Amino acid sequence: MTGRIRLALAVLAATAVSACSTTPQEFGAGVRETGSAVVSSAGDTSIHLALQRDMGREFPRYFAEMATEVHEGRVLIVGTIRTPQDRVRASQIAWQINGVNDVVNELQVAEEQSGYAFLNDARISNQLRFRLLTALDVADSNFDFETVNATVYILGVARDRSELEYVAELAATIAGVERVVSHALLANDPRRGRQQIPASIRY
Fold this sequence. Notes:
This protein is an alpha/beta fold. The protein has one domain (19-186). Helices cover 39% and strands 21% of the residues. It has helices spanning 3-9, 34-58, 62-65, 84-95, 115-134, 161-172, and strands at 24-25, 66-71, 74-81, 102-105, 108-109, 143-148, 151-158, 179-182, 185-186. Strands 1, 6, 7, 8 and 9 form a five-stranded mixed sheet that branches. Strands 2, 3, 4 and 5 form a four-stranded mixed sheet that branches. Helix 6 links the parallel strand 7 and strand 8. Helix 1 (3-9) crosses helix 5 (115-134). It is globular.
């Protein structure tokens, strides 16, 4: 995990979970090939560092209110932002970074989270990370996620549809989760690694 959630996860222990009902959305899946995993990871790290640099310059509250995940050149931006214009600007900044082939902007136009909401999101993320690490049929390193206002956003790839649906189910059944949105891809999805041309406004 990265950004604001990681800071809280460092001091939170995994807690017991109970079921709740929510519908996982936008399923997709994929898996990294072994031969390209190291190169892809290095490229994603470079993109993420550039994101932190450029977003931090543009948005003074970036590290407190926003977070990003990068997987095979696909960027997920989550958190809260003050205006629709700033939301569009965040996408523009991400698209300008070399190596980015897709930008998924899930920023919520809202006021800064309360301390309770922030800690609740951290708890949810912590429990999901624990579930992924202990799930026998999930390659946890192929998934990245962030939680904002009780919504879990998933990025990454999975071996097949059943794996991604299982990952979404693991998130959806954590107490307090209100929604699960998955932007992960199937292993054979032609969008993986393909350079996409951004629309005039992509958000």
